[in-house]
Amino acid sequence: MKNWYSSYHQVLAFLSIFFFILHLTQLQHFQAAGAAEYVRPPPRRIISTTHNRPKSHPQQVHISLVGSDHMRISWITNDKSVPSMVEYGKVPGKYNASATGEHTSYRYFFYSSGKIHHVKIGPLDPNTIYYYRCGGVGDEFTFKTTPSKFPIQFALAGDLGQTEWTASTLAHVNKTDYDVLLLPGDLSYADSQQPLWDTFGRFVEKYASRRPWMVTQGNHEVEAFPILKINAFKAYNSRWIMPYQESGSHSNLYYSFDVAGVHIVMLGSYTDFDGDSAQYKWLQADLAKVNRKKTPWLVTIIHVPWYNTNIAHQGEGESMRKAMEDLLYKAKLDIVFAGHVHAYERFTRVYDNEANPCGPMHLTVGDGGNREGLALMFKKPTSPLSLFQEASFGHGRLRVLNRTHAHWTWHRNDDEHNSSISDEVWLKNLSVSEACKEAAEEDQEPSNAVNDEL
Ligand SMILES: [Fe+2]
């Protein structure tokens, strides 16, 4: 008995020492990952945004781009008799135009959604403020259309969730004007608890009703019931319809759109992507249609990063990279944005695991502020392909100034009031690069494997 008791304590002591050393090791990685003086924040609580309007009034209002001069207005009412109709105009309270659209609803086991309205309005003037009302009742909302030419500004934040950190990120995004928010997957973190999609819709309405939010899906959107594999993407596809039909896609899980000289391709990490898949064939056709004289910039957004030196989610994007990287490299893709890893990371221009000045720059921005917290550890030694890593919440900003130059900044959330630029880089457009034109045409190995642009 005594021997057993002694062994038990020896095991306990061993485990204590083991976990203490592990903790120290993690701290070392943690500190090496970014600015040494910065103390990274812990996760914060979920904010539950309640419904406090009449049943017929719109809730969860958000907007998205459709074609060059239309906007889709999406909202939900608990009252099923409210018409799917939007009135709009350029003067507050005076609506000289209106449009009717479609509606849907869905069931997810014991949950029944409200009436989900989607109304396409337009044609709209570029860079113009509009005022609108949904369903003929309730508050007036307002949005600004995107510019028709450069410059244009994108805000980027993935893996958003609905926590106090998310609120901080969105408040920082909103402090400086921008034209479009791009979200590389993982929106609500509802994870099959459907009322959390409603709280998320209400949580983001303040921002998503004012600027178009263009999103793609992440693993938290799948929501397929285990074993039976039913209900996959049911909430996401009902609530967050993107302009897939307008871009010749048969699935809301992948699509493309043009905005002010930028062609943006939203790819689906959680649907088939192999060479014989519908997504791959659609991507081939979509890239063949891109006119770089009209849209000099080519940007792709995925959820799972193809390049990642964080310990979290290692290798998860590899099969998609192998399937699609070549196609996008030949199209002279400028940038790949990804989420999934809850940290920020910037790579050099890269192709097939080697630095390549004619490949795209890869950036991971899975740092919106969700309930799961940060991915703290990066692999050591640092890969020469990875130029910046930081495990903090924040958002990115891409300012496309003209057909040749863009400026990227990454903004760390210091606290709920302040953010600071932690990383920045200038990018040159690949479609105007003579060296890359020759490299692509002659299928040569590019000579100078260097990154930073200016
Ligand atoms: Fe994810």
UniProtKB/TrEMBL annotation:
Q: Which top-level enzyme class is recorded in the Swiss-Prot or TrEMBL entry?
A: hydrolase
List the InterPro entries: Calcineurin-like_PHP, Metallo-depent_PP-like, MPP_PAP, PAPs-like, PAPs_C, PAPs_N, Purple_acid_Pase-like_N
> Pfam families in the record, alphabetically?
Metallophos, Metallophos_C, Pur_ac_phosph_N
In short, the EC number is 3.1.3.2
Q: Its catalytic activity?
A: a phosphate monoester + H2O = an alcohol + phosphate
Domain named Calcineurin-like phosphoesterase: residues: 154-344
- Keyword line: Glycoprotein, Hydrolase, Iron, Metal-binding, Signal, Zinc
Q: Which residues belong to any copy of the Purple acid phosphatase N-terminal domain? A: 58-145
What this protein is called in its record is: Purple acid phosphatase
Question: Superkingdom of this entry's organism?
Answer: Eukaryota
Q: Which residues form the signal peptide?
A: 1-27
Q: Which residues form the Purple acid phosphatase C-terminal domain?
A: 359-416
A GO MF term = metal ion binding
Give the protein family.
Belongs to the metallophosphoesterase superfamily. Purple acid phosphatase family.
